[in-house]
User: Which sequence fits this backbone?
């Protein structure tokens, strides 16, 4: 869409979350009470929009006073004062005047401007350390919702039909399930205020090939709906009102990326062996069954991580054993003769809980998630294990346990598998008795005790997304601590090496299936540390494959030895990047 306005080009910087470029007008949504439609207005309509706002406020105040009268008749408790507080909020000059002013400044419909102002206000309230005041946000949401409803009864807005069908979505935050349900024909990319490159939302965006950036401060408030924009998922920028020169530059970048993609695709069937003959298994991570064609087409040698929670926690009831067995069997058959590693339910953290919790957890990432949930819900665990075992009759399958923090969890989980095997055997149901069983290493305690865990399992898979956050105590989804969340922190690479050493001593392989595995600037480091398998999003398989084929294992191993002696993460990153640049600089973004 050509930008016919005189707005200067502006760039907002966020964090790159999913590579790619999208060019389209912006569509803004926010959180909390439901977002109204947003559309631009002409200068001559500014006064009329202000009038609509004033009318909606008056109507809301009248309704609240009526409600308060009614309550006063019924009771004399202090609850009846609640509507009085709501009226006072509507009379608050700071909010009222700000909305009137912002209608003229932003040139957007009154309800959206009111909505945006309230979002900022609420955000400020949520940061106040006073619990009582924080709790008042519910009142503000309530009165705002009522006022927004009253706009709808206050005369039809002049809503134009945007002539563009495709948009870049700008939102305060998107949950993993919002991301799964994005209409990808119309949403070409997204930018959010919250989130980080390692959140499940970002992982899904990468899996779906949707360009995305996160951590764009005040995006919802600062970006006007329908502004023409370019979203650059490589550098983490959103460029508003791009000039013709900027557009031309991005057209060229897109052209180059296309060329690289087709060159990479031409190599995808080749073995992923380093130039000095070290074989690295390259597999794909999937969340949903519909990613299978992409995973197969990518050249991946199997599925290194199937995140089953996206099937189990799909909104409704957890599917039963038979339904799960059908889905798992389809996946196994589709990937034949390659291996599919099925991770048992990993609920909690930033994903949905396995069941509604009566109280929100104070620290969800340190709470009820991963294998802890399965061990606490034996009936649910049993259904999943039986379903996976049944699928193992159709091809090569492995079971993997998430968020293992110590030995006893592995014992208990293995016992549960054995019990299910015995049951199935008695029932005459076919399955693979030699099914490999692995532990994810994503908690420092597991990495530090890897020598104790290794004799109990058939493989390790390092979940760097979690391992990094727990090692450096920086939440993987919190943009405020994103700079601390470093895959090359000396503590992280030492834990990776320790895990690999323990695995080698016990004759079992180690994979990496966290997002670090898909970052080709770090492929030299991981291979050098001794990782034997990398599992990455299907979109990334061709690129990581080509990186592996370009590297010398001996060179990487020498570099990793040096990296392990470094005290600064930036130096470790440089060492790996130097090799990456020299070996496949053209593939780096
Ligand atoms: C990880 O933590 O690195 C991992 C692969 O698991 P998830 O991202 O699903 O937590
Ligand atoms: Mg994890």
Assistant:
């Amino acid at each position: 869409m050509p930008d016919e306005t005189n707005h200067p080009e502006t760039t907002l910087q966020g964090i790159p979350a999913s590579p790619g470029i999208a060019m389209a007008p912006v569509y803004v949504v926010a959180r909390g009470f439901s977002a109204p439609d947003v559309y631009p207005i002409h200068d001559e309509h500014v006064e009329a929009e202000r009038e609509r706002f004033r009318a909606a406020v008056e109507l809301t105040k009248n309704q609240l006073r009526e409600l308060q009268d009614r309550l006063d008749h019924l009771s004399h408790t202090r609850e009846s004062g609640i509507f009085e507080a709501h009226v006072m909020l509507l009379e608050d000059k700071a909010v009222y005047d700000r909305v009137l002013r912002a209608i003229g400044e932003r040139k957007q419909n009154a309800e959206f401007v009111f909505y945006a102002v309230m979002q900022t206000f609420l955000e400020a309230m949520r940061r106040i350390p006073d619990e009582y005041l924080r709790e008042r946000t519910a009142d503000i949401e309530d009165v705002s919702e009522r006022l927004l409803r009253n706009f709808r009864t206050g005369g039809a807005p002049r809503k134009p039909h945007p002539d563009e069908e495709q948009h870049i979505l700008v939102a305060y935050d998107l949950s993993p399930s919002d991301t799964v349900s994005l209409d990808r024909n119309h949403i070409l990319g997204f930018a959010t205020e919250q989130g980080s490159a390692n959140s499940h939302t970002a992982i899904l965006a990468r899996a779906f090939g949707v360009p995305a950036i996160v951590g764009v401060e005040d995006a919802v408030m600062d970006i006007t709906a329908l502004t023409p924009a370019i979203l650059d998922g490589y550098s983490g920028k959103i460029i508003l009102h791009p000039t013709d020169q900027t557009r031309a530059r991005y057209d060229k970048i897109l052209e180059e990326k296309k060329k690289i993609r087709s060159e990479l695709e031409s190599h995808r069937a080749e073995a992923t062996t380093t130039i000095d003959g070290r074989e690295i298994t390259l597999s794909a991570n999937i969340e949903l069954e519909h990613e299978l064609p992409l995973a197969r087409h990518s050249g991946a040698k199997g599925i290194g991580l199937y995140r089953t929670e996206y099937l189990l926690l799909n909104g409704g009831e957890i599917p039963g054993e038979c339904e799960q067995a059908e889905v798992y069997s389809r996946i196994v058959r589709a990937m034949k003769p390659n291996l599919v590693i099925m991770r048992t339910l990993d609920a909690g953290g930033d994903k949905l809980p396995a069941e509604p919790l009566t109280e929100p957890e104070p620290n969800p990432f340190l709470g009820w998630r991963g294998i802890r949930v399965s061990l606490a819900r034996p009936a649910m665990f049993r259904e999943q294990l039986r379903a996976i075992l049944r699928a193992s009759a159709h091809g090569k399958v492995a079971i993997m346990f998430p968020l293992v923090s110590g030995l006893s969890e592995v014992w208990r989980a293995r016992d549960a598998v054995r019990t299910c095997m015995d049951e199935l055997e008695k029932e005459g149901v076919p399955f693979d008795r030699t099914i490999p069983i692995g532990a994810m290493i994503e908690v420092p305690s597991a990495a530090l005790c890897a020598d104790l865990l290794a004799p109990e399992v058939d493989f390790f898979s390092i979940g760097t997304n979690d391992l990094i956050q727990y090692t450096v105590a920086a939440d993987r989804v919190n943009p405020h601590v994103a700079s601390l969340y470093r895959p090359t922190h000396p503590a992280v690479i030492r834990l990776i090496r320790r895990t690999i050493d323990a695995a080698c001593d016990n004759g079992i392989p180690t994979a990496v299936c966290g997002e670090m595995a898909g970052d080709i600037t770090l492929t030299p480091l991981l291979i050098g540390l001794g990782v034997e398998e990398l599992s990455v999003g299907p979109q990334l398989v061709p690129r990581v494959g080509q990186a592996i084929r370009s590297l010398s294992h001996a060179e990487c191993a020498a570099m990793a030895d040096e990296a392990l002696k470094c005290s600064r993460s930036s130096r470790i990153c440089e060492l790996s990047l130097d090799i990456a640049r020299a070996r496949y600089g053209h593939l780096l973004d």
The chain has three domains: 10-35+162-258, 43-149, 268-587. The pocket of magnesium ion (ligand 2) is lined by residues 402, 442, 463, 465-466 (CB under 6 Å).
